[in-house]
Write a structure and sequence with these properties.
- By secondary structure, the chain is of the alpha/beta class.
- The chain has two domains: 83 residues, Orthogonal Bundle (Arc Repressor Mutant, subunit A), CATH 1.10.10.10; 233 residues, Rossmann fold (3-Layer(aba) Sandwich), CATH 3.40.50.150.
- It is 48% helix and 19% strand.
- The strands form two sheets. Strands 6-5-4-7-8-10-9 form a seven-stranded mixed β-sheet, with helices on both faces.
- Strand 9 and strand 10 form a beta hairpin.
Length: 337
């Protein structure tokens, strides 16, 4: 039976309410308070220092979303979905939930109709800078750190699958361009003790990458440097561009790809990790992400034909494509004459 269209529309248009309910659940640390077992809203409120009645209402709403389970007698428990909102556990998506509902993203979404009319993001008008310029401002350091943690958590959804699949035979040097804390390259280094790795990123990101390499005991084979992949990239046998190209328009993507092509060693490769838009008219999370990119960046999600056109124009050819989890794929490129 076909669902009532009006009910479907109501479900769709209240998606923002759902996002903010998740944000409140994350900010009030509900999942952490339930990590040791079921508890009442009153017990959670006492631990968090929040109002018991409104805490109950929030937890009731979270249970209707499947984030919490209701145990009876006003007691709630974590579900597998709710586990993703815990702090500092493998697979956590708490930071991603928070940053998507913070100022930079939430305020930019208000301008979506204007972005469509104008042909590009209105984030600069909202934030006073592009997204990455906004995060580089000292007064936005806390939100920038949250964004970095969120990207690291998102990276974790794909890195394990990518590391297990990528062949590093014959590779000595790997450059993770825009690699944030270096999760991808450090994962490859841990799997292959012959590899030397480097993260190239913005100055405020570099200390975090160095700290992460030290934490994993890989600092001796690792370097993190501040730089601009629109200007140049260090030489390497293998380049990693994980969730990078979708941040930029075609012209900027071509600059990044051409800089990698100019610096790559003979026989070297480039791995692009991105969501790829699939068949039109079918449910596709990548198209939702594309709307986010339209709002907050100058970038976009692309289908394979669009990616292949970029690669061909920059001296690369897609040789293999394989899924690595979280809806992401690796597009493995080799050089062309």
């Amino acid at each position: 039976m076909t669902a009532d269209p009006a009910a479907q529309m109501l479900d769709l248009l209240t998606g923002g309410w759902v996002a903010q309910t998740l944000r409140a659940t994350a900010e009030l640390n509900i999942a952490d308070h339930l990590a040791d077992g079921p508890a009442t809203a009153e017990q959670v409120a006492e631990r968090e220092g929040s109002d018991p009645r409104t805490t109950y209402r929030l937890m009731r709403a979270a249970s209707s979303l499947g984030v919490l389970g209701y145990e009876g007698e006003r007691r709630f428990a974590l579900t597998p979905l709710g586990e993703l909102l815990r702090t500092g556990v493998p697979g956590s998506m708490r930071s991603l939930v928070l940053v998507q509902n913070e100022h930079a993203h939430w305020q930019s979404w208000e301008r979506l109709p204007d972005a469509v009319r104008a042909g590009g993001s209105k984030a600069r008008e909202v934030l006073g800078a592009d997204l990455f310029g906004y995060f580089a401002q000292p007064e936005n350091a806390e939100e920038a750190a949250l964004f970095s943690r969120a990207m690291g958590d998102l990276s974790g959804l794909v890195t394990q699958g990518a590391v297990a699949t990528v062949d590093t035979t014959g590779v000595t040097t790997v450059v993770d361009a825009g690699g944030a804390d270096g999760d991808f390259v450090l994962g490859l280094m841990a799997a292959d003790p012959r590899l030397e790795g480097l993260v190239l990123d913005l100055p405020h990101v570099v200390p975090g990458a160095r700290k992460e390499a030290e934490r994993r005991g890989l600092a001796g084979r690792f370097t993190a440097v501040a730089g601009d992949f629109f200007v140049e990239v260090p030489p390497a046998d293998l380049y990693l561009l994980k969730m990078i190209l979708h941040d930029w328009n075609d012209e900027r993507c071509l600059t990044i790809l051409r800089n990698c092509r100019a610096a790559v060693t003979e026989g070297g490769r480039l791995l692009v990790v991105e969501m790829v838009i699939g068949e039109l008219g079918t449910p596709d999370f990548a198209t939702r992400v594309d709307m986010n990119m339209l709002n907050v960046t100058d970038g976009m999600e692309r289908d394979l034909d669009e990616y292949d056109a970029l690669f061909a124009a920059s001296g690369w050819r897609r040789e293999r494509t394989y899924p690595v989890g979280g809806g992401y794929s690796v597009l493995e490129l080799v050089t062309t004459p």
